[in-house]
Each structure stands twice: as C-alpha cells, then as structure tokens.
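Why predict the complex rather than its parts? Because the way molecules touch one another can change local conformation, and only a joint prediction can capture that. The input here totals 1349 residues.
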Amino acid sequence: MLKSREELQLLRAEATKRMLAETKRIIVCAGAGCVSKGALKIYDKFADIMKQKGIDFSLELQKEPHSDSVRLKESGCHGFCEIGPLVRIEPQGWLYVKVKVEDCEEIIEKTIVNGECVDRLAYTQDGKVYREQKEIPFYKKQTRMILDNCDKIDATSIEEYLATGGYTALEKALFDMSSEDVINEISESGLRGRGGGGFPAGRKWSQVARQNNFPKYVVCNGDEGDPGAFMDRSVMEDDPHRMIEGMIIAGIATGANDGYIYVRAEYPKAVARLSLAIKQATELGLLGDNILGTDFSFKMHINRGAGAFVCGEGSALTASIEGKRGMPRTKPPRTVEHGLFDKPTVLNNVETYANVALIINKGSAWFKGIGTENSTGTKTFALTGNIQNAGLIEVPMGTTLREVIFDIGGGVRDGGEFKAVQIGGPSGGCLTEEHFDLPLDFDSLSKVGAIIGSGGLVVMDQKTCMVEVARFFMDFTQKESCGKCVPCREGTKRMLEILNRIVDGKGEDGDIELLKELGEAISKTALCGLGKTAAGPVLSTIKYFEDEYRAHIYDKKCPAGACQKLKTIVIDPELCKGCSKCARNCPVGAIKGEIKKPFQIDQKVCIKCGACVSTCPFKAIKEI
Amino acid sequence: MSTFDYTVLDNAIEQFGNKESSLISILQSAQEHYRYLPKEVFPYLAEKLGISEAKIYGVATFYENFSLEQKGKYVIKVCDGTACHVRHSVPILEALRKELGLSEEKKTTDDLMFTVETVACLGACSSAPAITLNNEIYPTMTPESAVALIKSLKENA
Amino acid sequence: MSEYMIIDGIKAEINGEKNILELARKVGIEIPAFCYDPELSIYGACRMCMFEDERGRLDAACSCKPRDGMVIKTNTAKLRKYRKMILELLLANHCRDCTTCHMSGKCRLQEFAYKFNIEGIRFPNNACQISSDSSSNSIIRAPGKCILCGKCVRMCNEVQSVGAIDYAFRGSKMKIATAFDGDIANSPCVGCGQCAAVCPTGAIVIRDDADLVWKALGDDNVEVSVQIAPAVRVGLGTEFGFNEGENVMGKLVTALKEMGFDKVYDTNIGADLTIMEESNELIHRIKKGGKLPMFTSCCPAWIRFAEDKYPDLLDNISTCKSPMQMLAATVKALYKGEKKHVHVAIMPCSAKKDEAKREKFNGDVDFVLSTQEVVRMIREHGIHFAQLQESLPDVPFKEYTGAGVIFGASGGVMEAALRTAVETITGEKLGSVEFKEVRGMEGVKEAEYNVKDLKVKVAVVSGLKNARDICDKVRAGEADYQFIEIMSCPGGCVNGGGQPFVDAFTRSAMDYKGLRAKGLYNTDANMSNRKSHDNMSVSYLYDNYFGEVGGHKAHELLHTHYEPKKKN
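Output of the joint prediction:
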C-alpha cells in the first residue's frame, strides 16, 4: 500500500527501469479480432518453441531483466484487425501480419535468434514491403494517444502502466493542483465528450463541482452499443488504468468519492480487465480511502449492462445502475444536478476519461495543438464495412474523410466502388463522395446533419443498398427503443413497417413523404437522444439516395442488386440443359419446361427465394 | 412447497447488497447460474428486496440478456452489427435456424441443446461476419461453416 | 418582485407552479396531454404538451419549469403537425371500438382525435385482436386500448404502493403487465380502481354488473333491495348537472324506486352499526390490553392489502364487518318475505364488488354497483334526474346520524368513532362533536385527545402508500397510536375508484375530493342526531335483535376475521 507520493514515484521509477531493461520483445496482439483468428494459439506456440530451444524468456515484466532474455507479451489491440493475427518484434519494431501457428518456428529462428526479418510476413501494399509498423500507411497517418498503450503494454500489469508514466496525472492533481486548477485545465483544453453529444467536459465538471449536495458520483459510460463501434472496448480491455485514472481525477475535481463504470454486457473481457485493474489500484492505495496519504478517498464500482442500447443515454444508464428499467427520464433536472441516485453526477464516456490524464500531464496548450479550434484532441474510429483496412484508428479531430478512408483505410475492399459511409451508428447519418474533404469534427459534421456519435465508420460500396441499410438501422433502433415515449415507440415501428414494405417490393406512392413526415415528428418530439436521432439514417439516405428509394417503390428494382425480393431470377437458355432439377426444387412451382430443353421461370409466381440458383448444376440460373 | 434451491440468490444478495439497486446484478447471477430466470426467482427477490414482482418482471423483460425461458446447452449468437450485416450475416442466421428448425420466436430447440439468437454487435467487426458459441468468437463465418459447426457439436454430443 | 412568463401572449405570473402545464392552466390555456397528472410523478412520455419558444425550439410543458422572462407559444403550425402525428400513431395502435366502449364520451384520445380533426389513419391496426383481462371482480383491463401513458402504473406504485402492474418489455412490445403477464386477479391487485380513475382511455375500467341487476329488477319473483353508500350521494350529481359535492340522495332514492327497486336503504345506518361495534371493540382493546393500535376495517382494498403485505398485523384490524356488509347481513336476516330476496349495494368503490364475493359473507350482498354504473342505469332508464322529486329511504333502515354520513370522507370513521367512544368512556355528553383535526384531504393526519385519564392518539391515513408507511412503523414498534383509520383511496371513499370519472384537467383544476367531502360534512352539520349511539333505529335493532353491543348475536352477524393471502 503506497502511503505517499514519494512511494509511488519510487515504484514507478523502478518499473520504468525494468521495462527499459527489456530489449527483445515478441508482442502478440490479443485484441478481439486477432484472438478470434487464433492469436492465443500463436502466443502459446512461441512459448513452447522458446522453452524447447532453451531460450531465456519471460511472460511478465521481470525483476531484473538481462539483455539476452526475451519478453513474450500479450498486448491489447493494435488496431489493424484486418490483417491479424499481428505479432510485433522489438526493438526493431517489425510487424508480422496474418501470422499462423506454423510461422512461429521461423520467427523465433530467424528473427529472435538471428535478428533477421521474415519479409514474407511483413505487410505489403502496392508491391512495397513495410517491415516497420510505424512506416505502414495505416499507422503513419494516425496519431495514437488514447490508444498509445494498447499495443505496447500488458493490460493486466499495473507496473507496466506505471512504467509508461501511469498515475502521474493523478499525482499532479492530488498534490500540485487544486480542484479548480484541474477543472480549468480540462476546460481550457477544449475537451468535448466523446460519447456523441460533444458537450464540453470541463463545463460539465464545473457544474457538478458547484453543487452543494453530497455524495456526488463519477460515472463512466462504457455501454458502447453502436453496432459497428469498438473503440471503448479497446481502451477498457487494453488500457484500463488510463480510464480509471481519468475517473479518479474527475472525482478530485468535482468532490465525488465514488465512481461507477457501466460496461456493456457483451464485453466480458473488459469487465474482467477493469475488475483486475481496480483490484490492483486498490491494493496499491491508488483507490480507496486516503489515497497516497491524502484526505481524498475514491472507490470504484462496476456495473454490467444487461443488453439495452438505450442505456447509453445518460438517464437510462443511471436508472440501470439503480437496478431499474433503462428508460430515459425527462430533463430538467439534468444529470449534473440530479443524476445517479438523484445526486450530482459527472457522466462521461470511456474515451473522454481516457483523455484526462494526457491533458493533466501535458497541459491544455499541448492538447489544443491537436485537432481543430473547436474540436481539440484526437478521435478514435472503428473503421469497418467494405473497407480494405478494417480496424481501430485514432486521428486528430478534423482529419478529412478522404484521409481516413483512403490513406488509412486503403479504400474500398475488393476493388469495389465507394458509395457512402455511415457515421455515428444508428443515430447518425451517411456521408457521400461530396463529403470526402469534410473534416471529421463535431461542428463540420453537425453542419451536414451527421454526428461523430461514438465513432463507428461503416464504409459501403456500390453493391450496398441504401434503403436496406436504412431499414437495418431502423430495425435496430426500433428493437432498442425503450418504448416510453410515443413518437419513438410507435413512430419507429411504423417507419420500419414502411421500409420493410419498400425492400420487399411493396412500396407505395407517398411512402417517401410519409417516412419524412414521421422522421421529422420523431426527431422533434422524442423524449431522449436515441429517439431524437432515430430517424437520422433514414432521413439522410433519403436526402442523398432518394433515387434508390424511388427505384424500389416505383420500378420495383433495387439498383444495388441487394434486395432479394426485388431480384429477377432468370434461366440462361444457353446454359440450361433441361435437367428439371430446378423445377423439382422450386417450392412454389414457378419453373416449368420440357426435359432437355431450356426451362423457364414464371416471374408472377416466383418468390425469389433463390433455391433454384444454388441447385442448378450448370450455373444456368442467375439473379439479376 | 417447491424444493427450489435459493442459495445462488442468497449469495448474490450477500455479494451485491440487499437493496433495489442490486436487482440487475442479482438477476445476472441467477441468469448465469440457471442460464435463464426460473419463475421461483421472482417472488423470492420481491420478498427479499421489497420490490414488486411486476417490477422485477418489468426489469427482466426490458433487458435483452435476461431470458425467462430455458436456454440450450449451446447458445449461438449471430452478430448483426452493421459491419457483419453488410458482410452478410443474415444468411448465416437463416441457415442456422433452418438447420435447427428454429425461428425468430422459437429460439431454443426442444431438446434444449441449441439456442440461436442475434446480438447487436460483438465488437469484433474486423472478423465480420462473426458468431459466438457460448461466448467464444468464431470469425468470418459463412452459412456453410456455421452449419458445419452445428453438425460437429451434434456429433460430439 | 414577481416573476412572469408570456404564454401565447398572455402574461402569466409565476407562483411556484411546478411546470408550465400548470401555469398555462391557471391562465386559461389547456395544453393537451395524456400522461400528466398533478398527483403523479412527471413521466413525459406522450409528448403532446410540447411548446415552442422564441427560437423555435420545442420542449415538453410537463417537465419544464416556468422561468422569468420566458416567452412561449403552445399552439403553432409545427406543434399542431406533430401533435396530429402523435395522435395518428396512437390511434393506429388503439382498438377503436369507440361506440361500444365504456369510456366513450370521456376518453381523452377520442376527445383529442375529434378536437384535432384527425381524418384518417395511414397505418394498419391490429389492436382489437389483443384480448382483455376480465379476471378481476373489480376492474377490466383492455390492453388493446392502452396508450402506455403509464398513469395506472404510477398510481399503483407511487400512490398505492400495491405494485400489481408495471411496465414490461420494451419498444413497440412494451406493455403494462402484472408479473408474468398473468391475470390481474392473481396479482397483488386490491381492486381499489384508482388505476381506472386515472386511465385516459378505456384500457382500465370498472367492471359493469348492471345487466345482472336489471335482470333481477325485471323478475317478478324477486324482491330487490338496495343500499346507498354515503359518498355516492355527493359524487353522482355532477353527471346530471349538479355542482361537485352536492348531496342528491333524495333524487337518487326516487330514481331507484322508478327503476323498480322494491326497498331503498341507507348504508349510513350500517355505518352507525359499525361505530357501535368498533368503538366498543376499541375501548375493549384499550382497557383489556388487546392488540393495539387497532385499524379500521371498512375499506376492502385495505383489507386485501393487509392480507397480502402485512399478514402479521391482521390481529390489529378491527373484526367489524364494513357498513355495507353489516347492513346487508341485517337486511338479509330480517327479511321475512316470500320472494327470493336480492340485495344490491351502490358504492363509490370497485373493491366492494370483490368484498361482496368473499366467501365469509355468504353472498349477503348479491350485487355491487358503482356510482358510475348507477349513472348509466339512470340514463338507460330515461330518467330526467334533475327534475325528480326527493324521497326518503325505506324503514327500518332509513334513520341515520351525522356520524354515519361522514364515513365517505377520509377521517370520517375516526371522527364518528371518537364521538361515540369519548362519550362512552367519559359518560358525559360532548360539547362539540366535531373533531376537525382528522378532517381534510391530506394523506396522513394525526391527533391526540385526553379522554378522562386516557390519552388517545390516533392517525388517519388515505392512500395505500401512506398506509404502508404507517404499517411499517407499527411493525417496527415505532407507532404509539391506539386507533388508525385507513382508506385506500386518497381522500377516502369520496374519491373511490367507482365514482364518476374525473378527467385530468379537472383533477388538477378543482379540489373535487374536498368538495365532495364538504358535501358530507355539511349534511352532518345539519343533522340533529350526529352520534351513532343516538340513532333510534340502531337502538331498536340492538334491543330487539342483536342484544348487547359486542354480544354473541352481534358477533355472529356483524363481525368477521381475516386470513393471510395464500401465495403460490
């Protein structure tokens, strides 16, 4: 148990020394993407091989590492999930991609023993081999601050966090700054909430600090529910102490002594990592009573979500922590006055708290130097969909969409053609080619009717049907609506009904207008943020892709060729041998013909199920 | 009287505290233990925590993770997050349902072997389309590989 | 300095109104709303009460506090458009069988659909396929008509703390449900009907047994007698153009006679009987060291509540039957006629329908009609109520005292009991018979009296949440009362679930409960006999029939016992 600042500094210095003494490292990415592709087996294999070969290696930070020993480390997500499993070799900084268990022997032999690079495992783009991770275009354009530790440290070790300067901000906030200083620094930095709303964090903190109603609470929203977003997960799993440190500092600034982390239930590993981190911090005396000998106490609690997207909304989240249905309540009163257990509450999301220590350590001036004037700092994005380099990225606010999609993301996957990118998840909207040079920051996005949201960027190619995408998001929102207010409960249901009808080829004249009318009424009258933004994807796809809607409704065609019910299934008479297999498999008897002559499909009867397509031995049946 | 064993609930109450705000955590413990929420849980917690049964029912039916019906030995969740969706997760779901004779309403096989559900997003978007089998992620699935997985589970059962 | 805001161009002075909706009402502007009720927490779900500020921003008037200098409009083109959309969405999911709905003419949804000129619904509707729950003796639930305004849930939980129903599921599958969506009859529902009293549509209504009574009335081989509870006479008048709280007993008696009831009795005499027995029981408990505090037993919803939630306190409840059951037992016992005898009770209450069906009461009351049903029956019979002559009830159950009539207001039973108990203990006539400390519409009232060398501390509570709080105190040994009156409905029987429906606007604009209670207290004040033990008919009954107060025969006919609710 650390009783003073000096004791913490000593411990940190020692950990840093030990970490610096480690020279050779094999860092295996254990992010969700790589693990699902077998990263843990690779990790075990490395250990086996080194044991066999009698190589001196360690799985954890050693007491006294010597220059020849190899550190085998399981790190957090490196972000470049597309080409996982990833293995990085240090001190060279070489990155091996798509590593298989069979490659491990060669890596040990050539790289660890002989110091040679296995170039066939290095990343290659446009014929060029990139040995070093930092040279790869995907990484080169990024500014990884929040995610900096993710691919470096072992998240289960508080010593490694300390060795990277961990808990120095806490130290500063406790001993060198008053709570006003902390709030001023955060306010001055221009840090805005990363959860979607973009509300200035410093202002929120000062509003809570002003309340004379105790106890107060610091709550972290880790209920990252946007389908297609996994940034917060990475921070919680791979660098939990960074977030915890930010929360403790929020407690110092606002006068709160309890912190609650609300983690999405689908992230069991995040729960485990956070629990471990809290345990470690408590054992060291960085959490608990009289932290580092001061009179400041702070305890941390974890609540697991139980599967409700709406709990990402502040008042629903606090209701859920209170053991209730996660139904948002009316505001005022606001969370800063009457939040958790009806007490003043600071509620920020994971990424917002993760910025705090950086700002306290390096100062608001430094932070303001990154990003744009009104959107300072960086933003993490989950880049997914039909994109070449899917993964987790971090860029300065104001980076253009073009840079993100093409320079970092490598453009559309499989040579496809770009159509749109959905930003902000089910609450957001889509951006098109015309927005390529749009800077990704709070204000620029809000001008075009989109939001950063929590940071999901889903790229869609020309084969993606935008009506179907809108239907998909509406289906999600409709299922996740809490059901409390009329516009959201009834309105999203009706919008979904109409969209389902349209993609099924039963759209009617007036549907587009009715969708717009519903969308507007929901946006203006719904009770909470989820409801107010529920129609976003539909309204923005209508705005940019009304032609697609019209094609579905009036021509009964899906221009992207994606909507099953709008396809026409035809038999190519050149290829058909008249075997009758298709006719026998057709569930509705739509296919007729004479044996050994080309068969035909009666389009009026056909239900577009596609059963014939897959059964034809001659590939004569096609969907057009 | 029933012979229902309330130990799990008692332990959870002990762990999280005998208060309304512990309800969700206690239900989660029960859900993990029984893999669903047996009816007996409701009156017992109502009595202990001083919350009406109707309110507990309201909480249990609000959150996706709670099930009032028994789940299968193998719970398969097909991710239908955006990334998986645009990389065709729906055909995987349909193939699994067809293979097991399940539907959107009927999620669990009669022999209580398999439960097939969807999940909004597993956060494994780079492995899209992904499914989980009892919380283990299976990446880049196809309808065929999903059905093959079921078949192998059946054979080993 | 006064603070003002401008609503639709009208200057409105702010005097601590809790929201803009209330302030607007004060200056004569009705902002439409479904889910707002002044006595319940703010829910903010219907989104009808949105207003527009100077910058064109919208907010909900129910959850927004008036602020000095605010300028708002409550009816703009934008707001009308959105309100119409909300109405269309609600109507699309509402079983619109308006012509055959109990709430037709009183339904807020119907009213707004008409006012906002909703001309067509563009969405498919399957709401009528949702089946109703008629398992309860007291209320009928028709979820197909539910607009999820949540008033019933808030009433059942916040005001009554019964917790029979709550929100279940979510999104478009959300509904109001009992645990496991089971029958309401198998839930902790106590039948108080307060949910129905706040339901803006026909989703929860009081069970209607009028047809059964019509059948008996039409049968020549049946003698039909009826008793009328105190609160009915001050609740029914508004339906026929009388002022709120006006006592229309005389006309009601005439109407019932016209409809074919053979004998019309006054429940007040049952109330006087109750006081005789109950005050005797109280004195007995105090003097002989019986279980104290003693709770009143008139309210059947309270009895259900206690049997379910406080089985350990059942011995604290007076064993006296309610006035309705006492009178019915007496009427049935004294009936000497040839014909089959059917006894009907007209009550302000839906829980009485259930009480009458308790096995212990042997069907002494054959049917209970709520005030609402009697109003409908009077209308069905084509009676011009306002023009009726007044009549008196029939002997021998017509004479009553002022003590009996105030039973309908919270505190009335307490006051009536005190009048008798104090005189019995002291053996002296009371100077003033009025115990004003226990009057009024507050949910919890306390008083302490020095009666000879006895200190009598009493409490009067209405609303079951208040009852729960006091029961918890009793349970914890923190309550030093001797006598506690409990009525389930806030304000007592005048506000019973079976009384005519009072819409949400009136609920916040007028103290209708207080006016009804005032009607009863005025009647009491004008009586020559104001103490139950001065009732000559009561004395006659004891002398010729029951024998001693609290005696064997009285016990047999006028007392009962309670059993803890069986839990499955």
